[in-house]
Backbone:
């Protein structure tokens, strides 16, 4: 996996922590790159982190934390507003200010459960396409990015991971409104490598395609969000096999709040005090004013109303839409006057945060 990531993302994305004057060599390493991730209908510049590793003989000595802090500062200085990763462990990243950012749900169902009734199955047929040409797929996928929270605007390397997850190209099918890529059936199971079915027509065509494998497999597996449309339409036998969480860490709170989008037709303001022990520049009082789906931040300009109070990890969950303001308030992670909690609830409402790209 390390060699493949190095080849895909480039060796210049890999950072190594070496111990001065020691023969131990590399104490820790990680890969990171920048991309856009969509929240509230707008792209936010983020740092993606993968392959975090510490020499087993040196674990517990603070080397992993030292390397991560250096990565976060580098990304902040280069303009990233947020850092995202898939964790192997929560406590380590929680101490660095990461909070739960969103989910990835792994669903499965027997092919027959995806076979819609005849009156609902009229749709343009899918045709085979070139899985090594992601340009038309990106065009189909782009409108979907603005509909939810958490979807990344894929780099070339991420497209390769999505369409060639095991090194070989998946079988790609598409029509004019969507696409679906599947891996060769294995052990009576068909796995969807990637899919974008944004319209009713493409959704019905995709489900009909998957149902057509009933003679070859017993189950079809795919990834999606908690409100996945295939899961909503599927019949008997569908299961949620696994639910994973990815983490987010705000690097520049002002930049992040002014980059993301907000609900249309909402014009209001909210105030909150933020605590960030690792990046002191993020700590302080914020006044967020929203109009025409855009936000403007005023620092240290306290208004007449009482401000809410929140830590950086809980703020990450609020920002991405993974947890609502009221949920955080009930959990004791967001404190403040109920009026301000309601304002934050309205500003950060939206689709559940999820991301299909595992890195």
Residues:
């Amino acid at each position: 996996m390390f060699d493949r990531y190095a080849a895909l993302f480039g060796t210049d994305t890999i950072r190594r922590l070496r111990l001065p004057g020691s023969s131990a060599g590399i104490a820790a390493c990680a890969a990171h790159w920048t991309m856009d991730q969509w929240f509230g209908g707008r792209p936010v510049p983020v740092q993606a982190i993968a392959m975090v590793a510490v020499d087993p003989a040196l674990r517990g000595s603070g080397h992993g934390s030292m390397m991560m802090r250096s990565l976060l500062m580098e990304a902040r200085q280069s303009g990233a507003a947020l850092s995202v990763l898939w964790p192997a462990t929560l406590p380590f990243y929680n101490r660095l200010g990461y909070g739960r950012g969103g989910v990835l749900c792994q669903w499965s169902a027997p092919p027959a459960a995806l076979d819609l009734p005849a009156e609902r199955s009229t749709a343009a047929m899918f045709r085979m396409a070139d899985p090594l040409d992601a340009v038309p797929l990106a065009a189909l996928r782009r409108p979907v990015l603005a509909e939810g929270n958490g979807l990344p605007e894929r780099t070339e390397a991420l497209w390769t991971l999505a369409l060639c997850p095991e090194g070989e190209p998946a079988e790609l099918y598409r029509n004019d409104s969507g696409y679906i890529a599947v891996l060769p059936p294995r052990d009576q199971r068909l796995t969807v490598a990637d899919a974008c079915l944004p319209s009713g027509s493409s959704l019905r065509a995709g489900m009909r395609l998957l149902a057509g494998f009933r003679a070859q497999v017993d189950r079809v597996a795919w990834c999606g969000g908690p409100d996945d449309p295939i899961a909503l339409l599927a019949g008997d036998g569908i299961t949620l096999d696994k639910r994973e969480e990815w983490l987010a860490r705000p690097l520049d709170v002002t930049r992040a709040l002014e980059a993301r989008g907000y609900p249309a037709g909402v014009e209001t303001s909210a105030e909150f005090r933020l605590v960030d022990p690792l990046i002191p520049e993020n700590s302080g009082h914020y006044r967020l004013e929203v109009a025409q789906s855009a936000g403007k931040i005023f620092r240290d300009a306290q208004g007449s109303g009482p401000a809410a109070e929140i830590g950086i990890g809980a703020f990450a969950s609020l920002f991405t839409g993974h947890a609502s303001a009221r949920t955080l308030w009930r959990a004791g992670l967001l404190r403040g006057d109920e009026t301000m909690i309601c304002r934050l609830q309205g500003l950060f409402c939206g689709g559940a945060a999820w991301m299909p790209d595992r890195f």
Remarks:
- The longest strand covers residues 26-39.
- The CA atoms of residues 47 and 83 lie 5 Å apart.
